[in-house]
């Protein structure tokens, strides 16, 4: 099949729309991402942007993209890689990321659980009986994102969540009755208070398949692996169901996200996130929290004392 814009062979087709060759797909992908950034005012000239980069397809692509367009947006870009310490999984991602960063001159800073929490995630999971793996990981990762933002004086923290990721998260919050987190949805999120900075999602409307293809076409060589702790978790179940829906009803993800965002933005005007919440500093580490001791320090203390 020929590209809809030239005589070259097509490598991608989004449902029943245009066919794209390599060059026109990259053009389509980058223009769509730029449009998301400009439409939702995700980036301002002169800002320092931290990119949460795991070493996988989505985050590698985002770090590469923002570095490619840093002069266009007039920004500084820093890759923030968090090594939880999962043997046979994260170590491979870290190794590949370091190769890519050297190849493309990408600025990457690594934060390790072992350096700040004195233990690897896979070891912490074996020890702790009261915290699930995803709970420990999520709490400590958010703490390290905050630490990186302070270390580098960042203005924004960019994550590579794609369209498929966001539909999964929205449905999970709906099923769990989590209105607070549901109303945080969108390409631009975060409570800017107490040392927190906004989080932006430039790939918000890009599909997982598009991110993967962009990564491959730019020789980012993403390792094909998945966190071993996700198997059987709620997100894993939701994700598999949604892929089946997409196969049966093409455009499901795209249409669902566009429609639900309209509802969420209307609801945000009536429900103010953060009202009546007083943030203070954790007495151990200074992390903004409603508690005397933040959850990151609480989990660390409990695991270290077991």
Please characterize this protein's 3D structure.
The protein has about 300 residues and is α/β, with parallel strands linked by helices. The protein folds into two domains: about 40 residues, no CATH class; about 210 residues, HUPs (Rossmann fold, 3-Layer(aba) Sandwich), CATH 3.40.50. It has 13 helices and ten strands. The strands form three sheets. Strands 5-4-3-6-8-7 form a six-stranded mixed β-sheet, with helices on both faces. The protein has a two-stranded antiparallel sheet with strand order 1-2. It is globular, with a radius of gyration of 20 Å. The protein starts with 11 loop residues before the first strand and ends with a helix. The model has no long low-confidence stretch (mean pLDDT about 90).
Brief overview:
Helices cover 49% and strands 11% of the residues. By secondary structure, the protein is an alpha/beta fold.
């Amino acid at each position: 099949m020929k590209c809809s814009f030239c005589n070259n062979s097509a490598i991608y087709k989004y449902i029943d729309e245009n066919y794209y060759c390599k060059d026109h797909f990259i053009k389509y992908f980058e223009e769509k991402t730029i449009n998301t950034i400009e439409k939702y005012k995700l980036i301002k000239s002169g800002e320092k942007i931290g990119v949460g980069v795991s070493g996988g397809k989505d985050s590698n692509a985002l770090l590469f993209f923002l570095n490619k367009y840093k002069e266009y947006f007039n920004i500084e870009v820093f890759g923030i890689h968090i090594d939880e310490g999962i043997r046979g999984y994260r170590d491979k991602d870290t190794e590949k990321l370091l190769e890519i960063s050297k190849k493309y001159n990408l600025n990457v800073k690594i934060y390790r659980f072992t350096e700040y929490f004195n233990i690897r995630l896979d070891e912490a999971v074996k020890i702790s009986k009261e915290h699930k793996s995803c709970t420990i990981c999520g709490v400590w990762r958010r703490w390290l994102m905050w630490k990186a933002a302070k270390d580098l004086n960042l203005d924004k923290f960019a994550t590579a969540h794609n369209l498929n990721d966001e539909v999964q998260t929205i449905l999970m919050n709906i099923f769990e009755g989590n209105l607070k987190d549901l109303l945080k949805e969108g390409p631009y999120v975060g409570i800017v208070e107490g040392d927190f900075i906004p989080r932006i999602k430039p790939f918000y409307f890009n599909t997982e398949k598009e991110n993967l293809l962009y990564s491959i076409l730019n020789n980012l060589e993403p390792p094909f692996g998945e966190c071993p702790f996700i198997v059987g978790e709620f997100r894993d179940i939701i994700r598999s169901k949604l892929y089946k829906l997409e196969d049966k009803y093409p455009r499901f993800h795209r249409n669902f996200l566009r429609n639900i965002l309209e509802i969420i933005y209307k609801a945000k005007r009536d429900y103010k996130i953060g009202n009546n919440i007083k943030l203070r500093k954790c007495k151990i580490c200074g992390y903004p929290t409603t508690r005397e001791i933040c959850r990151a320090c609480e989990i660390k203390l409990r695991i270290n004392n077991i």
